[in-house]
Structure formats: C-alpha cells, structure tokens
Amino acid sequence: MDEPLNALPMGVYPWQTQQWSQLQKMIQQQHLPHALIVGGVPGLGKLSFVNALVATLLCQNKIDNNACGHCKSCQLLAANSHPDFKLLQPAEAGKAILVDQVRNIQHSLATTAQQGGARVVVINGACDLNLNSANALLKQLEEPGDHSYFLLIHQWPKVVLPTVRSRCQLLEMAKPTSEQGLTWLQQQLSDNELTIEATESLLQLANGAPLKAIELYASKAQDLRHQMLVELTAILRGQKSTIEVAQSWQKKPLVPMLNWWIEWLNDLVKLKMTQEVSQVSNKDIVKLLQAVAKRSDIVAIYALIENLIQQLNFINQRRNLNPQLVCEELLHQWYLLVKSGH
C-alpha cells in the first residue's frame, strides 16, 4: 500500500500542496526528472520548496515520503556539511555564476555518493548562468548519473539560456488562489491592524505572491506606488515635467515600478477594449484609467507596454543603463499617450 502523500514538510507553503504531492509520487515511483527548473514569479517560496525537496531526496529514513529530520543525512544537511549536496549561486548579488564554480562540482558528481543515496545540486539562479558556465553544465544535465538531481531555481521575468532550458523539465510554481493568499497574508500580518481592503491591495501589488507581499509591506512599497501614481497624474495635468519626475525616479527601485506600470497599462487596454470596469484589476485607479482611455490610442498604449518590457529585460540582463535617460524616455511616451487619441 502506498504511504500517504498529503503531509507537508517545513518550508512547503499551503498553495504548494498539490505540486508537492506530485513530486512525492514521482520520488516514490522513481520517476523524478534528473533536471528540474522550478520557476515562477518572485515571492512564491520557490527556494524553501526546493530545500524541502533536497531534504527529502537525501533523507535515509523518510516519514510519510518527507525527510525525517533526524537521520545522519538530515543532520549533515542541517549543518550545511552534507557531502552529496552542492549549491551553486552567484558569489555576489547581481553577478553571474562562473564556469569555475560549475567545474568545482564536477569531480564530486563523478564519484559515488558518500552517504550511499542521492546526490543533489541546487542552482539558485538558473538565469545567472553565463554562456561559459552553462556550457560546462550541459554534460552533467545530459548525463547526470544514477540518483543525481539538478534543481534549478528560476525567477521570472529573467531568461534561462535555451541550451539549459531544453535539457530540463519545468515546474512552474502555482500562485495561491485569491482567498488562499489573502487568508495566509492576514495570518502573517495579524499584529499590524491592516484592513481586509489594505491586505487585498498589498497582495495585488505583489502580483498574487504572498511572500513578495510581506517584503513589500516591510519596504513600504504601497507608499512608493501611491507617489508614482501621483507623479504620473501630475505629468498628464501639466503640473510636473517629465524631466523633473525622471530625476526623482532614477534613485528609486525601477523594477517593481516598471512592473506596476505594465499592470496599469494592461488594465488600460482592457478598459479601452471592453469599457467594463469589472475587467480592471487595479480598482483604485479606475478614474485615472478612464480619463486616459478617452484620450489615448490603443497602438500607443501597446508601444509603451513594449518599451517598458524591453527596459525591464535590459535591467535584468544587467546592461549598463542610464536610469535618468530611461525614465525620461518612458515618461515622455506616457505624456504623449493622452495626445495619441486626438
């Protein structure tokens, strides 16, 4: 008889239950892919999910198909000294994973597992592999050896090299349902006296990712979003110049700001196409969107969305951009947007 598969280990969140159960079954049936990319938007708990999977794969005495936490293998892993576990990630934030880092793990993968079980490599930042390090990794991905597993973590919207992606199976981490995410977030922020409406707004701001919502709350991102909307409105009203706002924005975190902007423009497209307020995700800016929709052209909206996505990709590719010039260009395009419908 199969063992129960519904027990959740530490590190697996409620919205990951179904996908965790699927992996448990694969492990039990010895069908787990040897190379797995765990992807999805930031803030879903991908790293903790992968850590739980590592513990399960290495455990010598599984309980309910989860790591026991007590065997020698589990103790070594908890002490960060398990000889059959390797972690690859950039040496510094914003840097690439280098070819020498990949080569350093090749010898251990060529030998028998010291604990007699699985060997696991976690690559925390699949998109941080540069061309040389990716090429050095390909042979291991193609011929990993018995009981060897590569678990690659991918953060959307960054791009994994095609040569790496084609040799792995993808597990796209599911977002929680709105009710599930809201319930969990309220439990985590229960001491902060947030209203249901404020909590819903925070979760929406995080693109439905609860852990990202916690991070945004701690960084007061809602204040940043509000100020951004105020300045975008001021440009349309002629109260502030694009250069003036760009000077303010260049020192702010552009990645979340550009992502919010894209979301608002997607809402603008929905409103433009359907005239249905119910289709809009960002309910708090409906009046602004309605005003812009009346004075803008759909082609110009799509052009701005395309430029925003391109600039986001450039930032994620670590191109040496001038933030002031990037902001000026985008804000000028925003200013012209309300003139495009005339």
Task: Please give a quick description of this structure.
With 342 residues, the protein is of the alpha/beta class. The chain has helices at residues 17-28, 46-58, 72-78, 99-110, 131-142, 162-165, 178-188, 196-205, 210-218, 221-236, 242-249, 254-274, 286-295, 298-316, 323-337; strands spanning 35-39, 85-88, 119-124, 148-153, 169-172.
What does this molecule look like?
The chain folds into three domains: 14-172, P-loop containing nucleotide triphosphate hydrolases (Rossmann fold, 3-Layer(aba) Sandwich), CATH 3.40.50; 177-218; 221-337, Zinc Finger, Delta Prime, domain 3 (Up-down Bundle), CATH 1.20.272. 52% of the residues lie in helices and 7% in strands. The protein has helices spanning 17-28, 46-58, 72-78, 99-110, 131-142, 162-165, 178-188, 196-205, 210-218, 221-236, 242-249, 254-274, 286-295, 298-316, 323-337, and strands spanning 35-39, 85-88, 119-124, 148-153, 169-172. A five-stranded parallel beta sheet has the order 2-3-4-1-5, sandwiched between helices. The longest helix has 21 residues, at 254-274. 32% of the residues are buried.
